[in-house]
Amino acid sequence: MYRHEIVRTVKKPKLSKHKDQIYTVLLPWAAEVARRFHIPSAFLSIQSATTFAIYRCFFDSRNGLCSNGDYSQSIESIILHDELPPLRAMTCHHFFLNCSRRDYIQWLDAKSNSSVVYASFGSMVVLNEDQIGEIFQGLLETNRPFLLVIRPNDNAEGIIANKMKGYLDGQEQGLIVPWCSQVEVLNHPTVGCFVTHCGWNSTLESLAMCVPIVACPHFSDQLTNAKMVDVVWKNGIMVRARDGGGLVERKEIRRCVEVVMGDGERGEEIRRNALKWKGLAMEAVKEEGGPSHHDLRVFMDRFK
């Protein structure tokens, strides 16, 4: 439908005030329309530059992986995925969740600075009951306060979340919510660690807010982002799943949180690097003179 609408608009110049086109993932036909009508176009990557470089290298065959026509024989199998689950429609529940901002902000306000572990896994990752249980128990065993987001589609109509809330009844260590304003939480002074799936948005927000990361990647660019966090930027640590089933056990969650928030040498290095990357992120997005502003101006000038 959108493709036909764009073609209709382009064919009637009076309806269109735009002379160029920017498109993003899942819209490959947009580039075809632009070429057909000789309209300058550009692809907007919503993932990291590293991930984009990997994709480009792969499809250009510059690394030789596809030289024999069968890349499956030249790459060692290191990641096993379950079969794709059935596709089902979901409502956009975020605007209707019974979750008061006042509740979790007041809870955070009562904690000490940099003492809270915030755990959330984005809007696409679906955790099974075993994995949610291991994360919950791992956070409990840290003996640190934690804010855990369990979305409705993760918790079998609320059964898992209610069970965990019952376990926490009367305790101040943990708070479980179906949704929260992530930027607001990460920017709160009491949050000292982010247990995340390492989606690009979450990774960027954590960098900008100076919150060290415990990376629990699942698919797509999350694996690359987690590797960058652990090995390149060194502002966090990536969990290691149990051999075979891919389950991240509670002791591993506990270990990684303690590395990030503890008094050890690596924890201190991680926190120093988190502060460094926050400074670089703020410098990059300066309205005048920052690298991002400069690069955007250069990009727009190419369309003139």
Automatic annotation (TrEMBL):
Pfam families: UDPGT. The keyword Transferase applies. GO terms for molecular function: quercetin 3-O-glucosyltransferase activity; quercetin 7-O-glucosyltransferase activity. Gene3D superfamilies: Glycogen Phosphorylase B (3.40.50.2000). The keyword Methyltransferase does not apply. Keywords: Glycosyltransferase, Transferase. Belongs to the UDP-glycosyltransferase family. This is UDP-glycosyltransferase 75C1-like.
